[in-house]
Task: structure prediction
Amino acid sequence: MKLVDLIRPELVIPELSGRTKAQVLAEFSRHLAKTQPGLDASTLNRILTEREQLATTAIGEDIAIPHGKIDGATRMIGCVGRSTPGVSFDSLDGKPTHLFFVLIAPEGSAGLHLKALARISRIFKDADFRNKLLRAPSAAELFRIIADEDQKYPS
Result:
């Protein structure tokens, strides 16, 4: 599984407007619902928020991977966003989070869901890659950087 199988250019938000965890999750939920037929923003927001209440998805080093499973999703879908100023997201390292990869999976996709989370975590742990994403001037460039990096790792 490749990250480019999960995201498309319209699923990249080059600058998130949200400044809190709740605002960022709501923004991702609205964006996904707007671009993905059959997904509901309020349901997505509830699922992402409930997951965050279990434990933070901010794994440190600028990264958070909010995720959840939803009835009605026909396939796994990802949405990437960046916050230049950073968001307090209860990160494991206590620092602001700048890069977000939201993953939505269909109910009953536990194995693939975990495999996708592992791949996202592995790729986003590379400091040079994260720095490129933080400096990218546009959504198209963010997508290109992710696609290029994705090719370096076997699926």
Q: What stands out?
A: The longest helix spans residues 21-35. The helical segments are 21-35, 41-54, 110-124, 127-135, 139-150. The chain has a mean pLDDT of 95. The radius of gyration is 14 Å.
